[in-house]
UniProtKB/TrEMBL annotation:
<protein>
    <submittedName>
        <fullName>GntR family transcriptional regulator</fullName>
    </submittedName>
</protein>
<dbReference type="InterPro" id="IPR008920">
    <property type="entry name" value="TF_FadR/GntR_C"/>
</dbReference>
<keyword id="KW-0805">Transcription regulation</keyword>
<dbReference type="InterPro" id="IPR000524">
    <property type="entry name" value="Tscrpt_reg_HTH_GntR"/>
</dbReference>
<dbReference type="Pfam" id="PF00392">
    <property type="entry name" value="GntR"/>
</dbReference>
<dbReference type="InterPro" id="IPR036390">
    <property type="entry name" value="WH_DNA-bd_sf"/>
</dbReference>
<dbReference type="InterPro" id="IPR011711">
    <property type="entry name" value="GntR_C"/>
</dbReference>
<feature type="domain" description="HTH gntR-type">
    <location>
        <begin position="2"/>
        <end position="69"/>
    </location>
</feature>
<dbReference type="InterPro" id="IPR036388">
    <property type="entry name" value="WH-like_DNA-bd_sf"/>
</dbReference>
<keyword id="KW-0238">DNA-binding</keyword>
<dbReference type="Pfam" id="PF07729">
    <property type="entry name" value="FCD"/>
</dbReference>
<keyword id="KW-0804">Transcription</keyword>
Length: 215
């Protein structure tokens, strides 16, 4: 992938994951080209990669749209995710390096500080970014290429639904607290506890989405 396409991919992807580009939004090449400050060719390349990630649907002669998921599909994704990420947390506790542990602590602390502030400019985008980096770092720390490949298509789509406007302050506090407890278990090399907390953490996210959809 070219440098221009990589840049476009990262920008479009971040906007999908932080909710700026909502599910069902049509992604017009001309508009994306101007926003990403690249030509249309790298935008097309970025969109194809995003389609491979499961974040974009491309239909011939109709263009690209941000993927929409049904309630049952979201449930299936979260079911897969809690199995895979709880395993990742368990392995991370056994295999993490000190440098990875330090990065996890810094991300969890930054998340806790942000939640304590309770708002401010770009609050949701910052929350989404910290959450995304935290979960991906745990997968990295698990030290398994096979697990990383299996998780890649399962983790991204659920993160689209973690638009933190769905979360009241109490839920955000619990989410940040979960991250701290997961880090503590990984620091203690307690794989069973790390996996258990991660499973509960992800299922709590699913409950938030289900409750939001039914309200």
């Amino acid at each position: 992938m070219s440098v221009a396409a990589e840049s476009a991919y990262n920008l479009i992807r971040s906007k999908i994951l932080d909710g700026s580009f909502e599910a069902g939004k049509r992604l017009k090449e001309g508009e994306l080209s101007r926003e990403c400050e690249v030509s249309r060719t790298p935008v097309r390349e970025a969109l194809r990669r995003l389609a491979a990630d499961g974040l974009v649907d491309i239909t011939p002669n109709a263009g690209a749209v941000v993927t929409k998921w049904s309630q049952s599909e979201v449930f299936e994704l979260y079911t897969l995710r809690h199995h895979l990420e709880s395993l990742a947390a368990s392995w991370a506790a056994e295999r993490r390096t000190e440098e990875q542990l330090d990065r996890l602590k810094k991300l969890a602390d930054a998340h806790s500080r942000l939640v304590k502030q309770g708002g401010g400019p770009d609050y949701e985008a910052k929350n989404s970014k910290l959450n995304h980096e935290f979960h991906h770092l745990i997968i990295e720390a698990a030290g398994s290429r096979a697990l990383s490949a299996a998780v890649s298509h399962v983790i991204e789509a659920p993160l689209m639904f973690r638009n933190f406007s769905r979360y009241d302050h109490a839920r955000m506090v619990r989410s940040a607290s979960d991250h701290q407890h997961i880090v503590a278990a990984i620091a203690d090399r307690d794989g069973e506890l790390a996996g258990s907390i991660m499973k509960a953490h992800i299922l709590a996210g699913l409950r938030t989405i289900v409750e939001d959809a039914s309200s």
